[in-house]
Amino acid sequence: MSARTARSTLHLPQGDWATVLDCLCAHFEAIDRATWTDRFARGRVLGADGQPLAATHPYQVGLKVHYFREVPDEKPIPFEAQVLHLDEHLLVADKPHFLPVMPAGEYVNETLLARLSKQMGNPDLVPIHRIDRLTAGLVLFSTNPESRGRYQALFRERMIDKAYEAICPALPHLEFPRVERLHMVDGEPFFLMKRGEGEPNSETRIEVLERRGEFWRYALYPVTGRKHQLRLQMATLGAGICNDPFYPDLIERGRRDQDDYANPLKLLARALLFRDPLTGEARQFESRLQLDW
């Protein structure tokens, strides 16, 4: 059995584990302990200095660990992305549902980055932002390391407008358009977010585009870009995005591990608008994908 490999980096999260091995087993629940133990034995888990770590190496929060992901017989994802724009600085892709942007977990080559790097013959391709694996729509890539920082600053400094669409249950008791603000904190399990106490750290403007009985199509305009922001905010309003396996209720793991291609998450990254930091030109890109009712 052949395995495809790729190197990744993790700064160990807060926890009470005794060893790095214990932390990795808890953080990557889809990978069993025997697999991690074998990787340590073969020198496939490294410290910040690039030297192999022992399976008994003590856990330390924030410790930088490099590891080699190995995916035997990686399952192909039967959907293709479209390249909507390409120039010497930028590539804009229309990502299908279920395809991850970056390598993670069981996905190495079946990712948008890996596919596009191979297709374009460009090892310098880097996503400037990310959307969830289950979300479809626009992803902006840098094709040129020399200009990359200028475009990354658009997101860091909130100088880019993002528009999403979602199909969710109707909310006839609320007034729209509205601005939703939440204080978002890490939830349990670690890959979830939840509403916490304190000043809001996330903000989204929400409009209604279309009403069809018990379900509406919403336009979502995030001001901030926190993990799972739109999914949590709609669930908090009582209108969790259709086919969301995480919010408002986490479905059991066996069902989560089996992608239902006929029922994708009804969330689409519809548009990106910004002023080009190199030319000053107004740029606008729109997804060609559609959310089916």
TrEMBL record:
Taxonomic superkingdom: Bacteria
SUPFAM superfamilies linked: Pseudouridine synthase (SSF55120)
All copies of domain Pseudouridine synthase RsuA/RluA-like, residue ranges: 89-235
PANTHER family to which the protein is assigned, alphabetical: MITOCHONDRIAL RNA PSEUDOURIDINE SYNTHASE, PSEUDOURIDINE SYNTHASE RSUA_RLUA-LIKE DOMAIN-CONTAINING PROTEIN
Annotated protein name in UniProt: Pseudouridine synthase
Gene source species: Stutzerimonas azotifigens
